[in-house]
């Protein structure tokens, strides 16, 4: 099962650095074109997003993500030696040809992070020949989508995450997709669903959440689905890599600012402790 949810609370510094990198890249690309971003309601065709040029541009960006130093406050963990892969699947919906992203919800039977939303995927084992092989195997085991249905674009750069395994996103296209063809492994997956790209690009869908450490991360809310943590950030990251500047809406260009933790005032001494220490309060 995907380890994305397990990393959601431990990598806010990474989110901050990657977000700054995306904002810088987006600003540079936007300055190179004078085209005004269209309204999100404007249809985005498969030819625009799934052609060879789009694939080349997207994977170049996914492979060029910067590396970041470990936060000093976090000590190494044995789990960091493990690696996992997830599948970011661009689905061409059957009948409409609409482009969507495929997500899963973790099973209620799992001991940790049950019901949280993630991409299909999981830990790489000794039998996997590559991260692509790992992502395709885990996807087939979790939701029954066979590997021959997925047109693989390639691997992104490995994301080194403190206190948990590193993650390699694998990007692929699923033509003529229908949720009805999936066969879920109920021990691992509670639900599988797809979200249209146009829904993820709406201003009302793009939000943020603040971690306890004070860092903020992107969140997408579509209908009753709340996509957050590493899954939310990978969604944010992927949309920046996939969409050309003239199709990127303003709501995805907004920098998610760093917010320092709120510090509670010191607790006042208990009245009994105060009474014991103050002679004037003795009877």
Description:
The protein is α+β, with helices and mostly antiparallel strands. The protein has a domain at 46-69 and 80-252: Nucleoside Triphosphate Pyrophosphohydrolase (Alpha-Beta Complex), CATH 3.90.79.10. It has 9 helices and 10 strands. It has helices at 4-7, 12-31, 46-50, 52-63, 131-143, 197-200, 229-242, 250-253, 271-277, and strands at 83-93, 99-106, 117-118, 121-123, 151-155, 166-177, 189-196, 206-210, 216-222, 225-227. The strands form 2 sheets. Strands 1, 2, 3, 4, 5, 6 and 7 form a 7-stranded mixed sheet that branches. The chain has a 3-stranded antiparallel sheet with strand order 8-9-10. Strand 8 (206-210) and strand 9 (216-222) form a beta hairpin. Helix 2 packs parallel to helix 7 (229-242) and helix 4 crosses helix 7. The longest helix is centred in the N-terminal third of the chain and has 20 residues, at 12-31. The radius of gyration is 22 Å and the shape is globular. The protein starts with a helix and ends in a 6-residue tail after the last helix. The model is unreliable at 1-11, 29-39 and 278-283 (pLDDT under 50).
Summarize the structure.
This is LP09908p. The protein is of the alpha+beta class and 283 residues long. The chain is 29% helix and 23% strand.
What is the CATH-assigned architecture of one domain? Alpha-Beta Complex
Mean pLDDT across every amino acid position: 78
Estimate the strand proportion. Answer: 15-25%
Q: Please summarize the sheet with the most strands.
A: 7 strands, mixed
Radius of gyration equals 22 Å
Shape: globular
How far do the termini sit from each other? 64 Å
Number of strands: 10
Element order: H for helix, E for strand: HHHHEEEEHEEEHEEEHHH
CATH superfamily of one domain: Nucleoside Triphosphate Pyrophosphohydrolase
- Structural classification: alpha+beta
